[in-house]
Amino acid sequence: MTDYQVLLDSFLSHYEPDATEVSGEADDVSLACFVADTVFHLCHDIPFEFNPSGNSFTSFCSHILSTMNISPSAILVALEYIQRLKANCPTKVNGPDTEYAILVVALMLAHKFQDDNTYSNQSWAVISKLPLAHINMVEVEFLASLDFNLFVSELEYIEWLNCLEQYLNQYESFALQDSFPYHDMDVEDEYLYDAPELYTNEMDLFAYSAPPSPDVDLMNGSYYSQAVGICR
């Protein structure tokens, strides 16, 4: 067994289903919480114990991860892509609600790079409730910021897993202290998150990234025109 597989197994062992659980729901939720906090921390440099997006982004993560059935390896690679994006272009990740589109596009790129049978961008748009035009343009900008290099060597992967293990240990120490107000929340409702206001004062591609409310018609309403207008 390779070093990275040993580390991956070690990392995922934190999420083995509890023997008392009939399903893996609690397991999925804890992984979604960790991913949500890691992405939010990378984007905004906010300590794990403070996440003002709270329930909204965590439930969004849970919905995306469970619906798209992304492999653990692709999830970890997606987090590495976000880390690279932040290192190369820090100003692109710290705008209001940028974490939503960044997470979706990072997962999409990791899945495309690792699997020949991938979901279309349209599928990601439907599941995330982000406009397809926005996802397409963020994807191009994301790739350009990474110099179109999605390859992760075994050494890089091992180093990143070690880094995530440190994040995980810090995360679990906060979780045990009940530092997360949303740690035990019910994320079964995929529409638990609400859409913030459009940030028209920022013309950056990543400026508006949060999904709309479920009753908004993305393709026919004024919302779609506004969102596409911001991306131009």
What does this structure look like?
This protein is an all-alpha fold and 232 residues long. It has one domain (24-231): Cyclin A, domain 1 (Orthogonal Bundle). 58% of the residues lie in helices and 0% in strands. It contains 9 helices and no strands. The protein has helices at 3-12, 25-44, 54-68, 72-88, 98-114, 121-128, 132-145, 154-176, 222-231. It is globular and about 40 Å long. The model is unreliable at 16-28, 179-205 and 212-232 (pLDDT under 50).
Specify the helix fraction band: 55-70%
Radius of gyration: 17 Å
Q: What overall geometry do the principal axes of the alpha carbons give?
A: globular
Q: Biggest β-sheet, characterized?
A: none
Q: What is the typical, i.e. mean, pLDDT?
A: 69
Helix/strand layout:
Blueprint: H1 3-12, H2 25-44, H3 54-68, H4 72-88, H5 98-114, H6 121-128, H7 132-145, H8 154-176, H9 222-231
Helix pairs in contact: 1-8, 2-3, 2-4, 3-5, 4-5, 5-7
Give a short summary of the structure.
Helix content is 58%, strand content 0%. By secondary structure, it is mainly α. This is Cyclin N-terminal domain-containing protein.
